[in-house]
Specification:
The chain crosses the membrane at residues 7-29, 41-61, 68-88, 100-120. It holds the Pfam family Competence. The chain has 153 residues and is mainly alpha-helical. The chain is 76% helix and 0% strand. The chain is extended, with a radius of gyration of 21 Å.
C-alpha cells in the first residue's frame, strides 16, 4: 500500500509538472512530449536511487579524493536515464501541435492554475477554460509565408 501511494505521488507530480510545462513548450517550440509522464515515471526511481544520492556522496568525498567511485555509480544512473529517454522517445508519437495563439496560452494557463491550485469545487472552473483553449488551438491557422513574401515586395 505504501509503495502504491509513492508511485501515485510520483505520477501526480509528473502529471502536474508535465501539464504545466507542456503548454509553454507547445507555445514556444511548437512541440510537446506526449509520453513525458511515462518517461518521468520510469526514470524517477533511477534518479532517486542512483543519480542524486551518489551525487551528494561524490561531493562529500571530494575533499578526500574519493569522489571517483560515487561519480562512477552516478554515471551509470545517468546512462540508465538516457536509455529510458531513448526507449520512450522511440515509441512516442509526434507532439508537434503547430502554432499556438497567445490567447490559447493564457486561457490554458489560467485553467490549469484553477484546476491544480484549488482543492474545492472551484477547480472545476478551469475545465471550460481549458476546453475553450483547446478549441481555440484547433481553429488556429498556420501563417502563410508565401503571402507574407508577396505583400512585402
Amino acid at each position: 500500500m505504501k509503495a502504491a501511494r509513492h508511485i501515485g505521488a510520483i505520477a501526480m507530480t509528473s502529471l502536474v509538472a508535465g501539464s504545466v510545462s507542456s503548454i509553454f513548450a507547445a507555445y514556444h517550440f511548437n512541440n510537446t512530449a506526449p509520453f513525458g509522464l511515462i518517461g518521468n515515471a520510469l526514470a524517477l526511481p533511477v534518479i532517486s536511487t542512483l543519480v542524486m544520492p551518489f551525487a551528494v556522496l561524490g561531493l562529500l568525498a571530494m575533499p578526500f579524493d574519493l569522489d571517483w567511485l560515487p561519480f562512477a555509480v552516478m554515471g551509470y544512473g545517468i546512462k540508465a536515464v538516457i536509455a529510458v529517454a531513448h526507449m520512450v522517445a522511440s515509441h512516442s508519437p509526434s507532439g508537434n501541435l503547430g502554432l499556438m495563439p497567445q490567447g490559447t496560452l493564457i486561457c490554458m494557463s489560467i485553467g490549469l492554475v484553477l484546476s491544480f491550485a484549488f482543492s474545492t469545487r472551484l477547480r472545476l472552473c478551469g475545465i471550460p477554460l481549458m476546453l475553450g483553449a483547446a478549441i481555440w488551438m484547433m481553429r488556429a491557422q498556420e501563417p502563410d509565408i508565401g503571402q507574407a513574401c508577396r505583400t512585402s515586395n
